[in-house]
Design a protein that fits this description.
single chain, 348 residues, alpha+beta, Aminopeptidase, OB fold (Dihydrolipoamide Acetyltransferase, E2P), 4-stranded antiparallel β-sheet, 6 helices
């Protein structure tokens, strides 16, 4: 346990995290202690919805969505689950945060409007920090120590469209890899992605899970500021299968079998496909999600609206792979990532 995690959280709640039964309520994030919150804050708090269900002995699971506020599929999935689950369905402990970064969810933004905080970069957090850091601190110091698993549901938001998938980071302990891969197979999305590390590093939830000895799985679902019905449906069935697989539910809440899961490795960031033009233009993709591309293949073109007679510049893949996600905004310039690739491969 870090020195920060020993601090007492300034977020309070009427819920008893260890009480038996189903509880619904709020974590109350105080705003008066943070001097950038606005002129009308006074002694206000930000309500963060939370549900706990505890019944007998068994594993503990934390379910999260709204880590980024404008990623919607996970929020809908967890709200559906909250309304469905009863105390007798649970064996052990379930904690559900359907809007983990509640200020970002309320503002319909990826990051918090209170402090521009990206919750998935703030762990382990600080009880005396800004609002986002305070939320991260409570999750790592109060919630993760009570669970064995954390399932965090993400989507592509406004900037990226993903091939819907479940994601694990390769565990630091080789003997835990097989168990982590089994979570992907039970979740049963058509694509299961194994990454070498989280994009957010130790400041992401996966970093917090590793510090607390908690097994982690996340998703990438949908994109474009809307909700993908097919992604919600696939992931909703997958999540209830997963909850039964780890032993926290007493019955299987779906009769749908998992899809065969194709395991892919995300290529290193230096092998993503980037725009490399000094002038911003309109990106025209020439390949789509799930397509196989080859090294040196032209996968897109950038058109220049200020000089429409100019030939478009080609965007070239430096390496081969399968298109896992693509950039959504068409206006594109040097340094913008337009495609992320994955590859099949044997797990060592």
């Amino acid at each position: 346990m870090t020195e920060l995690s020993r601090q007492a959280s300034r977020i309070w709640t009427e819920l008893d995290f260890d009480a038996v039964g189903k509880q619904v309520g709020y974590l109350r994030l105080p705003l008066a202690v943070y001097d950038r919150s606005g002129d009308d804050v006074g002694y206000n708090y930000e309500p963060i919805p939370i549900v706990t269900i505890r019944n007998g002995e068994g594993p503990g699971v934390l379910l999260m969505a709204g880590n980024h506020g404008n990623e919607y599929e996970g929020q809908i999935i967890l709200m559906n689950l909250i309304r469905t689950l009863r105390t007798e369905d649970i064996r052990g402990r379930l904690i559900i945060l359907p809007a983990a970064n509640a200020p970002a969810v309320r503002a319909d933004r990826r990051i918090s409007p209170l402090d521009d905080g990206n919750l998935n970069r703030q762990f382990p957090g600080d009880a005396e920090g800004g609002p986002t850091s305070m939320i991260a601190h409570l999750i790592e110091s109060e919630l993760l120590p009570r669970v064995d698993y954390a399932f965090d549901l993400h989507s592509g938001s406004l900037s990226l469209e993903y091939l819907p998938c479940a994601v694990i980071a390769r565990p630091p302990q080789p003997d835990r890899l097989e168990g982590a891969v089994s979570l992907l197979r039970v979740f049963g999305m058509p694509i299961g992605m194994v990454v070498e590390h989280s994009t957010g590093g130790d400041g992401a939830l996966i970093g917090a899970c590793r510090r607390q000895g908690v097994q982690h799985l996340s998703t990438e679902l949908g994109a474009g500021g809307t909700v993908s019905h097919s992604a919600v449906e696939m992931a909703q069935h997958g999540l209830v299968r997963l909850l039964h697989h780890v032993g926290v539910t007493t019955r299987v809440l779906t009769d749908r079998a998992p899809s065969e899961c194709r395991l892919l490795h995300r290529v290193p960031a230096r092998q993503y496909v980037y725009a490399d033009t000094s002038e911003r233009g309109l990106f025209e993709p020439l390949v789509g999600l799930g397509d196989e591309v080859a090294a040196e293949q032209i996968v897109g073109r950038i058109h220049f609206t200020t000089t429409p007679w100019r030939e478009p510049e080609p965007v070239v893949a430096k390496t081969g792979g399968i298109v896992l996600c693509r950039r959504i905004p068409a206006r594109t310039g040097r340094g913008d990532c337009v495609f992320v690739l994955g590859r099949d491969g044997q797990l060592p």
